[in-house]
Amino acid sequence: MPEGPEIRRAADKLEQAIVGQPLRAVEFAFARLKSFEEELAASRVRAIETRGKALLTHFANGLSVYSHNQLYGRWQVVKAGATPKTTRSLRFAVRGASHDILLYSASDIDVLDEIGIATHPFLHKLGPDVLDPALTAAVIEAHLAEPRFARRRLADLLLDQGFLAGIGNYLRSEILFDAGLLPTRRPGSLTADERAALAQSVLTICRRAYRLAGITNDPARAAELKAAGVSFGRRRHAVFGRADEDCYRCGGRIETADLNRRVFWCAGCQA
Q1: Which helix (H) or strand (E) is 175 found in, with range?
Q2: Which of 60, 182, 220, 239 is deepest in the core (most CB within 10 A)?
């Protein structure tokens, strides 16, 4: 499943293609949403917002289309009127003057007003978005100290979208490696310095993944590996997906275990 940085990068492309354009049509595959098509087509897209792994297409008339890609959803941007070659089912389309944005295979789609957004069963439970520019390390540290989070295993907590929205499986392994913490640790057992390190690593790794198209490894190290001919998939991460390989930092062995999905760590670098 795409994680927060991938969703945000996709949203950037959608915004560039459709925001502010006169619309030719808006289309939904689901009968319950078809009554909104004409009203939305008469408006314009003013912004595309991400909240964790969910996406909100905001229209100038005050309505928004909520969508969640889940496992199989995929967005495409095409020239106006173009039809991609695909076996996927088109579920939502916004057709503009120069480009169309198309959502395939997703099933979690709805049209919401401001109250609907505030009360949506998924959206209203989300914690702060990890790519929100207003999110600070201090806010994350305060979250870690909350009783509802303090006793949970870090491997589980980082996947909880109610703690922080947008972290998935590869990000949690990479965040914990950057912070030097084992996935079995709990917030309540962390020292003040460890809490501060974890909070900063959340920001560093998530923003790096967004900026560098999914790379979470140290950028200088990733560049060296690229120069040495290492493939993108092998240089992308420090520990994720690298079980039984040597740690790039200390030379130790990367370990893995199934802790609410597969997690990876270096016993030499994490404690």
Answers
A1: helix 169-179
A2: 239
- SS3 state at 24: strand
> Mind listing the pLDDT tens digit for each residue in 106-136?
999 999 999 999 999 999 999 999 999 999 9
Angle (CA) 119-75-84 rounded to 5° is: 145
Quote the distance between the C-alpha of residue 28 and its chain's center: 24
**DSSP-based three-state secondary structure for 179:** helix
DSSP, collapsed to helix, strand or coil, labels residue 177 as: helix
Q: Could you give the domains of the chain?
A: 4-125 (3.20.190.10), 137-266 (1.10.8.50)
Q: Which pair of structure tokens corresponds to residue 190? A: 């962390």
pTM over 0.70: yes
Q: What is the gyration radius of the CA atoms in the chain, in angstroms? A: 20
Given a contact cutoff of 8 angstroms between Cβ atoms, the answer to whether 76 and 101 are in contact is yes
CA angle 122, 68, 91 (to 5 degrees): 135
Q: Which residue has the tokens 């915004």?
A: 15
* DSSP category for residue 247: P
Residues marked as catalytic: 2-3, 53, 262
Structure-token pair, residue 197: 């390190």
Which residue matches tokens 């959608």? 14
The pLDDT tens digits of the residues spanning 167-178 come to 999 999 999 999
Average pLDDT, the chain: 96
